[in-house]
């Protein structure tokens, strides 16, 4: 019991809980198929995780502030489109590193700008974030359809393929990008003034306003940064699929929300950390890879993700009740 | 009168904008104000409206439902199986079946939300994934084309041939839509349960202490939404003449945008059936108008998104209506300011 308590304080209850869940999933799959505990399986998991992971990080901070960003997928698509059009302008597959850098810059600016606009509407006009981001989603989807006429753009320089499929010292580059952003996110949220303001706004926006937090600037910052991370996800998607199409990854939208809630984020905002969300993402990826290995398809994995979230929430509810009754008895 | 004006400011504003659009389109195009165009507008939006009033009840009760569109797909598939086994059926049986299947799926949501005290957005996103995943897994993504005749045959309530020979007609779905609208309006406006739903949505804890049965409220709200989803799903098959498992995927967010545009508050306690109608038709007429004005179809969604963005931006600008209506400002603040929370 003391060992458990010590672990609880060192790692955090939430992390311990999710680590337990992850362990159960891994043990379950490795006992049912010998293919699960292999290097190639973990390799493919490491390549699949980052896109969903980055999008989840983009979803996470708006949720922490008590909102939601439903536009992330199309922000990523439009940013990818910006990168693609710059690359095409500089010769498609023959484009050099300079063109790529310019394209990345364009993508980041597009992502930031779309987020900034959303933040402006949320902060200054008091529109509900769900509605503001929903309208932005419909607008960006339409914009993408208008620009591409529903088709896809492909033909990127070969080094982009390396970015999407290569490894440095055995660690996949997409995973490195994801972990880098996750670490940055953790530092911003836990050790910066902006992060503090995010938590305060999520807990009680009026109280934070009266305490001297510039809530409007913080809200704009939240959605702009979310847009920037979407742009990174969009660039990575372009590199991984070697093409950009508006609607790529559309099915991931609600999965990112699911991952956030699984990672213990309070749906009303104010509480939640980066590490449990990353653990939740690993669990989801392990579930889907494991199910694929034992012959089920992605659709069943989607269903299991949904049921898994319900199960975890039910366990949390039971744990909270147990905790309450135990405390009362003492 | 003044009270009604200040309480429904969003609806009134939307109504004025809609009227301006209708008059503008009537003057600039000679096709907008024709019987054929107006009936097709009604036919094409009846399904969305059925779903919209279902979602409205959930929003009024302070919840949100993301899963209703895939629930409708699930009902379509299950109903097709049931009709296949029974061999035949008719509309009365069909509506009963689809309604109760949808009700069942809605009650699953309600039971999970109330049982584990989890916020509705978490549960309905989970059930959204679960329903959709299971549906795609069991159907393997295949559509069903062999459906009973009564289900796919068009029933016309009204037919009319204009002088130029253009046929216009109203489908059965419009009648079902009207019934659903009236039933929802009676439920939330004219019954005791409706008052309790508003109270529960506005302040759940306050309502609970005042003696409102919150389990019943969740069951009614999500059950009603599920039932409307089921009936809407049934009527959608009548129009599309096939059951496609992923056809309705993604519709939930479009309907949500229309309902909230019509003045329902995310967070509960506010919303009207008229607002739903206005919200749905605002989006529909924008699209219809762009079409008639000859704008490229690829630009539709972009313009609609921008329109909604502008609409919500302007509807949240705090115009000081108090001097206009001579009412204390405090009342107005409750109506418009709380949308932000």
Task: Give structural attributes.
heterodimer; A: 330 residues; mainly alpha; two-stranded antiparallel ribbon; 14 helices; globular; B: 16 helices; 3% strand
TL;DR of this structure?
The complex is a heterodimer of chains A (330) and B (341). Chain A is mainly alpha-helical and 330 residues long.
Descriptive report:
The complex is a heterodimer of chains A (330) and B (341). Chain A has 330 residues and is mainly alpha-helical. Chain A has a domain at 50-278. Helices cover 78% and strands 3% of the residues of chain A. Chain A has helices at residues 2-11, 13-32, 39-64, 72-89, 97-125, 129-148, 158-165, 173-191, 193-203, 205-210, 215-241, 252-262, 274-293, 298-329; strands spanning 152-154, 167-168, 171-172, 243-245. In chain A, a hairpin with a 2-residue loop joins strand 2 and strand 3. In chain A, helix 4 (72-89) packs across helix 11 (215-241) and helix 13 crosses helix 14 (298-329). The longest helix of chain A is centred in the C-terminal third of the chain and has 32 residues, at 298-329. The mean pLDDT of chain A is 85. The longest helix of chain B is centred in the middle third of the chain and has 27 residues, at 214-240. Chain B is globular. The two termini of chain B are 28 Å apart. The relative contact order of chain B is 0.19.
What kind of assembly state do the chains in view correspond to?
heterodimer
The number of helical segments of chain A is: 14
- How is the main sheet of chain B built? 2 strands, antiparallel
Largest interface: A-B, 48 and 53 residues
Any idea what the shape of chain A is? globular
Major beta-sheet overview of chain A: 2 strands, antiparallel
| Helical content of chain A (DSSP H or I, runs of 4+) | over 70%
Number of helices of chain B: 16
The residue ranges of chain B in which pLDDT falls below 50 over 5 or more consecutive positions are: 318-341
**Order of strands side by side in the largest beta sheet of chain B?**
1-2
Radius of gyration of chain B: 21 Å
Stretches with pLDDT under 50, minimum 5 residues of chain A: none
